[in-house]
Structures are given as structure tokens and as C-alpha cells.
Amino acid sequence: KQEVTQIPAALSVPEGENLVLNCSFTDSAIYNLQWFRQDPGKGLTSLLLIQSSQREQTSGRLNASLDKSSGRSTLYIAASQPGDSATYLCAVIGIQGAQKLVFGQGTRLTINP
Amino acid sequence: DTEVTQTPKHLVMGMTNKKSLKCEQHMGHRAMYWYKQKAKKPPELMFVYSYEKLSINESVPSRFSPECPNSSLLNLHLHALQPEDSALYLCASSSRRSGVGETQYFGPGTRLLVL
Predict the structure, then answer these.
(1) Cβ contacts (< 8 Å) between B108 and chain A: which residues?
(2) Percent helix, strand, coil in chain A (nearest 5)?
(3) CA-based Rg of chain B, rounded to a whole angstrom?
(4) Cβ–Cβ contact B30 with A under 8 A
(5) pLDDT at B99 over 60
(6) Considering only alpha carbons, which residue of chain B is nearest residue A94?
(7) Which of A45, A95, B20, B76 has its CA 20 to 30 A from that of B108?
């Protein structure tokens, strides 16, 4: 059974810092990995999708990497801003079974002005 | 347009009520999903529709009844709910059932409170 873990559970940093969020998964047989952002009480916003054949994806100040063999992904946020404060979720879709998104517990990020 | 809309935004219902949640997308997507999210937890998949047919039911109690009348619309009918069913209900869609390269787009959710 696929399990996804995100470390740390919460992170608080001053504005302007670069930071890394971590995601690990137990079964490397995945189709893709997706990073989402969720503001309190709101829906999920898709940030980046990395297919299993890719090593990284970039969008603006965000860069996500994927090391499928070790079951790890990182989300790098450059020059953090208070507006980046949110919960960040990673999710994988496995090749086996029901092909559904399996989410980590999320990292709650706070950027202090 | 990558928008998934959900109505209502908030819903309060008693345990004997019948209500429905509605989800709509006009991206031409053929896969639609219902998720349930409790506070400070990740979303949990409930149902998946692929080409208007139910393809996954994650052992959800029968008091939740999904319906996909057409490729743009997804409903979740609620009946005789329990207080523990209070949660944020999220709808999502993707161009086809999730596999290689498929991004799921989520709606803003319906906040449900069962009294």
C-alpha cells in the first residue's frame, strides 16, 4: 500500500528566505507526483505535476524535483513571500491498484514579514 | 478556463434532511472525483466517475449517493448523515481518469455541517 510522508509538518521562516519542503513515498511505481497548495478552508490549487519520467519541473519561484528510485520529491520555494503561507500537499498516483491520488499529510508553511 | 465550480459554498443540515452538492466543469474533462477532507487532514477519495460511469467507490456509506448526469456535472446526494460527516467536500476533474500526465483540478469545496 502506497504511503506518502511530508516533513516537516509545519515550517515558519522569515520573508525572503529560500526553503525546501520534502515528500517521500514508499512505492516507486508511480505515474506522476503532484504538488498542491491549500489556503485555509479553500480548495486545492495545483502547483506542479512531475511525470515519472521527469526529474524536475519549474514554475516561477517554484521548483519541484523527483527521484523516483529513492521515493523522494522536494519542492523548492525561492525568495519566499507572506503570500506563500499555506499548506502544501504532495500526492502520487501509483501504477498498481486503483490509480488514485494518495496524499501526504501536508506541510503548513508560514512566511513571517 | 481551468475552473471547477461547486455549490453551495456552505451547507448546514440536520440528520434527517436530504440535500445535494453540485459540481460543474466546462473543460471537457471526462473524469470527475469527490473527496472528503476533515480539518488538518489531507483529502480522502470517495468516488471516481470516468466517462459518466462510476469507476471507483472507496467503500463509502450508502448515505452518500453520487450521480453524474452528464460529462460536465457531478452531484453528491446526501441523506441521513451523521455529525461525523461534517467536513469540506471537494470535487475535482481531469481530462481522463488519472494516469500519466493527468493534472487534477479542484473546486473550492462545500463546507458541510451536520447537526
Answers:
(1) 42-43
(2) 5, 60, 40
(3) 13
(4) no
(5) no
(6) B99
(7) A95
SS3 sequence, A67-82?
ECCCCEEEEEECCCCH
| Closest Cβ–Cβ partner in A31, A43, A105 for B99 | A31
DSSP letters, B38-101, are -TTS--EEEEEEETTEEEEE-S--TTEEEEEEETTEEEEEEES--GGG-EEEEEEEESSSS-TT
How far apart CA B63 and CA B80 sit, in angstroms, is 6
Q: Is A84 helix (H, G, I), strand (E, B) or coil?
A: helix
Residues of chain A contacting residue B88, judged by C-beta atoms under 8 Å apart: 41
Instruction: Give, as one character, the DSSP assignment of residue A83.
Output: G
φ, ψ of residue B83 to 5 degrees: the values are: -55, -30
Interchain proximity B88–A41, CB inside 8 Å: yes
Half-sphere exposure of A105 (CA within 13 A, CB side): 7
CB pair distance less than 8 Å for A32 and B109: no
Chain B residues in contact with A91 (beta carbon < 8 A): 42
Cα angle B48-B91-B108, degrees, rounded to a multiple of 5:
165
